[in-house]
Specification:
Layout lengths: L1 H18 L11 H30 L2 H21 L14 H15 L1 H11 L6 H26 L4 H10 L3 H15 L3 H25 L5 H21 L1
């Protein structure tokens, strides 16, 4: 219990950690830096899905559970994407009223964090002791640039730096609640574990291919982003071997 709570809190608070630099940054962050960070995160999440979540799902269940779980993860993200307006934060211009646009951004980011929190909670319910920590780490890294982009957007809407930092941090707190829900569901209903692990893998793979990779290749930094993706993947492989 203490492990999943701590992991959920750390992964959720990574959103705030990512937004922290806006309190000190005077200028703007380059597209190259942003794209490199997103691609690095994509590599980490890809490795976590393929080398941790999917093998663990197969070990605790089988191919049927894996396919069903991955499909449910992908479909959940697909449904959320279709029903929650998606806005590319890095290309949003200033001059839009905070009441309309910023509220939409905050709501969308908060709701998109729900499956990520579930992924962390389910991972801690696995018999593999390190799976939860690894997935919490991977989700946390994905949350960091997200928090930074949300905070930068809010600043463009003439919101104060500290207020923008607080709001960006709060968008990640829902992961604590959903992490605990995912943990309790799979802990007390044991047969859900392989489905839950596969669900987490499907959700993460969707985020990688649909969101992180395209966004990291949209500003002419394809080669740098590709290198960063590979480095992120290898970094996670090494981390898996060490742990």
């Amino acid at each position: 219990m203490s492990g999943v709570l701590l992991g959920s809190i750390l992964s959720a608070m990574s959103t705030g950690a990512g937004a922290l630099p806006i309190l000190f940054i005077q200028g703007s962050i380059t597209h190259r830096f942003r794209d490199t960070l997103l691609a690095f995160t994509a590599g980490i999440m890809m490795a976590a899905s393929l080398l941790s979540l999917i093998p663990e799902s197969l070990a605790t269940g089988g191919y049927i559970q894996l396919v069903i779980g991955v499909f449910l993860g992908v479909m959940t993200l697909t449904i959320m994407e279709k029903n929650i307006p998606h806005i590319d934060l890095s290309h949003t211009k200033s001059g839009i009223q905070f009441d309309e646009k910023a509220l939409l951004i905050i709501t969308a980011i908060t709701l998109h964090n729900i499956p990520e929190g579930l992924s962390v909670g389910v991972s801690y319910a696995s018999d593999a002791a390190d799976t939860g920590n690894l997935i919490a780490f991977a989700i946390g890294l994905q949350n960091a640039p997200e928090g930074l982009l949300v905070a930068l957007f809010l600043i463009n809407q003439k919101i104060g730096k500290f207020t923008a930092f607080i709001i960006a941090t709060l968008t990640g707190t829902i992961e604590i609640i959903t992490g605990l829900i995912g943990y309790y569901l799979t802990s007390y209903i044991g047969f859900l574990v392989p489905y839950g692990l596969a669900f987490a893998a499907g959700a993460m793979l969707f985020i990688v291919y649909k969101e992180l990779i395209p966004e990291s290749h949209g500003d002419g930094n394809e080669r740098t982003s590709t290198y960063s993706f590979i480095v992120g993947l290898l970094f996670m492989v090494i981390l898996l071997e060490i742990l």
